Amino acid sequence: MGDVAEDKASFYANAEDYWREVPATVDGMLGGYGSISNVDINGSKAFLKKFLGEGDGRTGTGCALDCGAGIGRITKRLLLPLFRTVDLVDVTKEFLDKARSYLGEDSKRVGNYFCCGLQEFVPEAGRYDVIWIQWVIGHLTDDHLVEFLRRCQRALRPNGLVVIKDNVAYEGVVPDDVDSSVCRDLDIVRRLVGRAGLRVVHEEQQQNFPKEIYQVHTLALR
């Protein structure tokens, strides 16, 4: 058991060390693929707009949470244009410091900057219409991901959504020793979502990304 705890500790510590050395830029946030940002944001916006709006069963636009927010690329381009208030959570303090200037005038609509790893983060119950989790679930162990998703479910407002957008492996789990993360296949992600007591209400593959990177899928959960 001690070995498992030690492995988990180094899994998280190594990731923190990696991100501490990454430039606080859009290109840094996207691992050198800054050119895909527009395609990514447009795909995400079209996905979210299927759910947002007034009326029965629609998801509200009051408050969103950006998980693994980095410098706020997604907050700036996707969430602040659609929601009145956005909170950011990221493990790297330097990124959140940069976010304040990167977001510019719109930063006044940021509610909170939380500096915390998602394995420890407890979102406020009933606060969020949308919790957006992009390119970060690979930094959580299976158990921590399940526990985090359960906490996210409790943090949703009525008709709220948890959205996961991430790389998916072709089969099994592929470790990345460079940034201390894993890439899971879609079946494994769905299974972990189910363990958390959530269901997939919609799912899409992001189109028009470079062929050499993993497929990216977006899942809306309730």
Helix/strand class: alpha/beta
The low-confidence runs, each spanning 5 or more residues with pLDDT under 50, are 1-5
Largest sheet features? 7 strands, mixed
Strand order of the largest sheet: 3-2-1-4-5-9-8
Instruction: Kindly state the percentage of residues in helix.
Output: 25-40%
Number of helices: 7
> For the CA atoms, what is the radius of gyration?
16 Å
The coarse overall form would be globular
Q: What's the quaternary structure here?
A: single chain
Strand content: 25-35%
The total strand number stands at 9
Describe the protein in words.
The protein has 222 residues and is α/β, with parallel strands linked by helices. The chain is built from 7 helices and 9 strands; from the N terminus they run αααβαβαββαβββαββ. The strands form 2 sheets. It has a 7-stranded mixed beta sheet with strand order 3-2-1-4-5-9-8, with helices on both faces. Strands 6-7 form a two-stranded antiparallel sheet. The longest helix has 19 residues, at 2-20.
Concise summary:
With 222 residues, the protein is of the alpha/beta class. It is built from seven helices and nine strands.
Feature tags:
alpha/beta; two-stranded antiparallel sheet; 7 helices; 9 strands; globular
